[in-house]
């Protein structure tokens, strides 16, 4: 079965850092473009970052540009999100998504809370 399992979320102070991981199984990971989304209470889900199949190209939402870095390890079937200089507005559930053509798979999400 297809699975995407996020981990690494938690509570962090403003200005701190976290590294999220998303472990994939049940499909050919290297064929898929990978994405991180987030959703805060009462807000729309927003795209945070995207990385292409080979890991050679990345894109970021304006709100995280310069602070977050997406990367992937196709040998480990894992995509990462390094989050630095965290702000309270970064508080959200973070979701991993894999996409290829009309196919897409979602993880269950991991909570990130930025608070002093």
Give a quick summary of the entry.
By secondary structure, the protein is mostly beta strands.
Give the count of helical stretches.
0
The biggest sheet amounts to: 7 strands, mixed
Q: What structural class is derived from the secondary structure elements?
A: mainly beta
Residue runs with pLDDT of under 50 for 5 or more positions: none
| Oligomer type | single chain
Query: Based on CA inertia axes, which overall geometry fits?
Result: globular
Range of helix content: under 10%
Report Rg.
13 Å
Measured by DSSP, the beta-strand proportion falls in: over 45%
Order of helices and strands: EEEEEEEEEEE
Mean of residue pLDDT? 98
Terminal CA distance reads 40 Å
Q: How many beta-strand elements?
A: 11
Question: Which secondary structure elements does this structure contain, and how are they paired or packed?
Answer:
Blueprint: E1 3-7, E2 10-12, E3 18-25, E4 33-39, E5 46-51, E6 58-60, E7 68-73, E8 78-83, E9 92-100, E10 103-106, E11 110-114
Parallel strand pairs: 2-11
Antiparallel strand pairs: 1-3, 3-8, 4-5, 4-9, 5-6, 7-8, 9-10, 9-11
């Amino acid at each position: 079965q297809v699975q995407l399992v996020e981990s690494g979320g938690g509570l962090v102070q403003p200005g701190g850092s976290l590294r999220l991981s998303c472990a994939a199984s049940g499909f050919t990971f290297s064929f898929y473009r990978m994405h991180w989304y987030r959703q805060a209470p009462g807000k729309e889900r927003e795209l945070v970052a995207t990385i292409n199949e080979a890991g050679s190209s990345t894109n970021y939402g304006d709100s995280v540009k310069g602070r977050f870095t997406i990367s992937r390890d196709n040998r480990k079937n894992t995509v990462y999100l390094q989050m630095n200089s965290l702000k309270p507005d970064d508080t959200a559930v973070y979701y991993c998504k894999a996409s290829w053509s009309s196919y897409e798979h979602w993880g269950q999400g991991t909570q990130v809370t930025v608070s002093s």
